[in-house]
Amino acid sequence: MSNNKININELVRPNIKALSPYASAKDEYKGEKGIFLDANENPFGTVNRYPDPYQLALKQVISKVKGGKPNQLFLGNGSDEAIDLVYRIFCQPNKDKAIVFTPTYAMYEVYADVNAVELIPLPLNDAFDLEPAVVEPYLEDPTVKLMFICSPNNPTGNLLDRNSITALLTRFKGIVIIDEAYIDFSNEPSWLEELAKYNNLIVLQTLSKGWGMAGLRIGMAWMSEELVSYFNKVKSPYNLSSVTQEEAIKQLQDTAGFQQRIKLLIEEREKLIQELKQLSIVKRVCPSQTNYLLVEFGNADKVYEALINKQIIVRNRSKVVENTLRISIGTSEENNQLITALKTIDRE
Ligand SMILES: *Cc1c(COP(=O)(O)O)cnc(C)c1O
Known about the structure:
Blueprint: H1 8-11, H2 14-17, H3 25-28, H4 56-66, E1 73-76, H5 79-90, E2 97-102, H6 107-114, E3 118-123, E4 144-150, H7 162-171, E5 175-179, E6 201-206, E7 219-222, H8 225-234, H9 242-251, H10 255-277, E8 282-285, E9 292-297, H11 300-309, E10 315-316, E11 324-328, H12 332-347
Parallel strand pairs: 2-3, 2-4, 4-5, 5-6
Antiparallel strand pairs: 1-7, 6-7, 8-9, 9-11, 10-11
Helix pairs in contact: 4-9, 5-6, 10-12
The chain binds pyridoxal-5'-phosphate (PLP).
Pyridoxal-5'-phosphate binds at residues 78-80, 105, 150, 154, 179, 181, 206, 208-209, 214, 219.
Enzyme class: transferase
Family: Belongs to the class-II pyridoxal-phosphate-dependent aminotransferase family. Histidinol-phosphate aminotransferase subfamily.
Subunit structure: Homodimer.
């Protein structure tokens, strides 16, 4: 496979290139011991000190768990922060553009709008997979800076074709962001393994889904050291709290528990698929490599309302994919209650 050597410097916004980042006294003095009178902190208390702005201890632990290098990692307040930053680093407002493959994760559009970046929505095919030909007209356009590829894709649940992604990675002259928020539930290797081959690749992962820490807000963005340096320049200095960093380090120790819960959720997913397929109100259950199912109903709005009446809340995605609900996999008990409710609705 040929390497796609991109001149990153040429892609970065001029004001970001010229930026000198905020430097704290602790950037200059690296020692652990000392009398710290530099940051107007209060000497009393338990969370009185500012946290490590580069989260080095947490990055060590995450790198061991995920198999990447700590110096190729940016940590954000959720991967949503990384999505926002990638627009701010590369896209000049009202000039540059980004590609997404629809239907997909809504936050790419939200942050494009926030940053006044034009989004080019290109359709996935009927199997919700990539059709590289639709990208052809944009490959040489220097104002198209970013391409978001969500795999496994939200809300459809499927992995996108590896060869098609490789073709795009090799030919696109901008930054390719592969969002692997659900990779822990899938049976394919992460694109993290391919990082060394493409200096324009950013792999997004999160502790919110497979690791069950959505409340902590920790997202990972893996990329070349050169790219990491731009993220570090632009981010808020203390974007992850000390409590967040310590709690994540603690929870990441339990890899056995993590694997056990993933296995259980996958078994529950497969059980739910079988149950759903037996209902006459269900038209189609999309294949899923995630912890949710996109389900097509005869009348999704009606089923959605009926479930709400039974205090079961799912996500109505009918505006994005006709007549569909997206259902997260819950505990065995919760899934059984969902099936019981749907069977009742099916009989009505
Ligand atoms: C849930 C999700 C995220 C993760 O968001 P966090 O900000 O890390 O909680 C990112 N991408 C996709 C596609 C998601 O579904």
